[in-house]
Amino acid sequence: MAINLASMIDHTLLKPSATKEEIIKLCREAREYNFASVCVNPCYVTLAAKELKNTGVAVCTVVGFPLGANSSFIKAAEAQEAVKNGAREIDMVINVGALKSCDFDYVENDIKAVISASKIKPDIKVKIIIETCLLTEEEKIHVCKIVKNSGADYVKTSTGFSTGGATVNDIELMRKIVGPDMGVKASGGIRDLETAFSMIKAGATRIGTSSSVKIINELMSEKI
């Protein structure tokens, strides 16, 4: 597959026990491999931005993570602070309960509040995590339409902290609903090259994984 795989990867460390030293190592690896971004918890955005200053690697952080059940006001404030601290990409979790309650206006307004707060800088990318493992197919279709209409840059499968992660079937469905131009991010359970490629083949344009270095080393081994 003729792609620059590293440039499609968000090098991720979101575990609650992540230390400052681990974040610095994450950033060092991201510089070395030229990943698209590092994805870290909000408390580490300032540190990551410092470590990645004057590189091509973006700082990504999460909002309303991992449950998506914060109020829209708190999510928007979290996003705005992250951008001010140096984040260039925001991965927000939808309010899954609101979606399942068929409160679609709330879901869309919740997303739009975060997008508006994030776009205090116009080049910020916003990805919306729909937590596919908790949704029916009908709900997946409906929320993908909401995400597209909201003006977000990406729709994303999973937090990686719920009952399941990305699947090829979900990526194919999401791509079908949002069309060819919107970003689709596969995240959760992507731990090897074969799985990463299967997600890209299905329509993913970004991969979120904590196994980034392993995956790229697998790719390099195949080229030898």
What is the general shape? Answer: globular
Helix count from the secondary structure assignment: 9
Structural class: alpha/beta
Please identify which CATH superfamily we are dealing with. Aldolase class I
The CATH topology label is TIM Barrel
How do the SSEs run, as a string of H and E? Answer: EHEHEHEHHEHEHEHEH
**What is the CA–CA distance across the termini?**
15 Å
Helix content: 40-55%
Strand content: 15-25%
Could you give the order of strands across the largest sheet? 1-2-3-4-5-6-7-8
Q: Tell me the count of domains.
A: 1
Nearest-integer average pLDDT: 97
Unreliable runs, pLDDT <50, ≥5 residues?
none
Short description:
This protein has 224 residues and is an alpha/beta fold. The chain has nine helices and eight strands. It has one domain (5-223): TIM Barrel (Alpha-Beta Barrel).
